Amino acid sequence: MSIVKQSVAKVRQVYNKLFPAPVLRDFPAKDLPWIDGKNPDIEGFVKQFPKAAHLPYDLAEKLHFWKKNGFVIFEQIISDDLIDAYLADVQELIDRHQEYDINIRIDRPEYRQHPVMKVRDVPREIIEGQYIKIMDFHNASVAGKKLMLHPAIVAFLEAIFNQKVVAMQSLTFLYGSQQETHQDFPYVVPQVPSHLAAAWIALEDVQAGSGELHYYVGSHTIPKFNWGNGIFFNGESTKNPTDFGHYLSRECERLGLEKKTLLIKKGDVLIWHAALAHGGEPIRDERLTRKSYVCHYSSALGYFRHRHDLVNEPVRYEMNGADVFADPKLTQYENIFKRGDHVS
Predict the structure, then answer these.
(1) Overall number of domains in the chain
(2) CA-CA distance, 314 to 307, in Å (whole number)?
(3) Contact 303, 190 (CB under 8 A)
(4) What keywords are assigned to this protein (predicted)?
(5) Beta strands 292-299 and 278-280, pairing class
(6) What confidence tens digit (pLDDT) does each residue in 91-134 have?
(7) How far apart are alpha carbons 291 and 207 in whole angstroms?
(8) 43 φ, ψ to 5°?
(9) Domain of 167?
(10) Residue 305 vs residue 1, higher pLDDT
(11) Residue 322, beta-bridge partner list
């Protein structure tokens, strides 16, 4: 770390001790995206939204559905060619994993002490197995960038935020995650925490028994969980993710919210609110993969510095009117997988 960055970090530490942030019980109302406010004028917004007339769906209908349910599904919006290019990039990463410092997360007991590792340091049989997330592969893959900044995804998120869209991070799965029920915002925190949404892109047809994604319809409106120090999970939290999962399941059941599992086709996309309760079902058929690509997004206001470098202006790549930042720690890998160059 440079002397300047060390100085900035020390100043922040002192400031935080002198002026500790209040314990949040919810997102501040003044920071909410317009559609999360009370009684948003959806019809009025659509009339002034430039892209509305060019979309292959009724934007007002989708926004009303989002407001009520916390998600939308778009069918067959991603081409097989683009998905296949990305999957080929992923396969090349696996085949030649010893050449790359790209990170993966391993949620297996034997890796509990060091869950995030360089792919070159992990045996291939682990990389290709369950409980693996390839982290931010979009930085290295042109196809990954095109997937996450697909025009259909960008246009809807631009409407949600009423601002330029900025992609924050991505996770690539070969198998179902089998994660406990959770919400994203306690873990994925942009500079404006309420400016957060996610997309789940099916890279193959999802089959029953593969560890399908589950979600609770309308759960984005339930009271926020208190980790003991507010609504975000960090080193000072006195509650743990299992407590969080139990709270969400109980609260959703108490409110009678419908639990659905996601059985969608290759090229379909689920976009969900940062507070939608969701998770991964157990894998009942070990033969089944569930290849998927999860991307998190914020707005130009909500995410203006890369999470790995909060001091310096990020290197930006613009696509379809949205931005994604280069990884400041892995600049040597930016766009080295080029299969996506001529695919749309």
Answers:
(1) 1
(2) 10
(3) yes
(4) Dioxygenase, Oxidoreductase
(5) unpaired
(6) 999 999 999 999 999 999 999 999 999 999 999 999 999 999 99
(7) 11
(8) -60, -40
(9) 3-342
(10) 305
(11) 319
